[in-house]
Design brief:
By secondary structure, the chain is mainly beta. 0% of the residues lie in helices and 38% in strands. The chain has a four-stranded antiparallel β-sheet with strand order 2-1-3-4, with no helix packed on it. The model has no long low-confidence stretch (mean pLDDT 84).
C-alpha cells in the first residue's frame, strides 16, 4: 500500500510488489520525496532529491518500523 509523491508537485508513484517505483517528467530542481501509507506499518520516510536536466536520478527509500 505504499505511495510516493514529490513535493511541491503533484507527481506520485505507487510502489510495485518488489518496491520499485518510477516518476517521469519531473522538471530539474530540488525536491523532497515523502512516503505515505494508508496503514502505518512503518515510519514514513523523507528524502531530499536533486533532479538534473537530461539525467535519470535513482534513490533508495528505506522505511523502518
Amino acid at each position: 500500500d505504499g505511495k510516493l509523491f514529490v513535493a511541491p508537485t503533484s507527481a506520485f508513484a505507487e510502489a510495485a510488489d518488489d518496491g520499485a517505483f518510477a516518476i517521469a517528467g519531473i522538471p530539474a530542481g530540488n525536491y523532497v520525496l515523502r512516503t505515505y501509507q494508508k496503514a502505518k506499518r512503518f515510519r514514513d520516510a523523507e528524502l531530499k532529491v536533486t533532479i538534473q536536466a537530461g539525467n535519470t536520478s535513482q534513490v533508495t527509500v528505506e522505511m523502518k518500523r
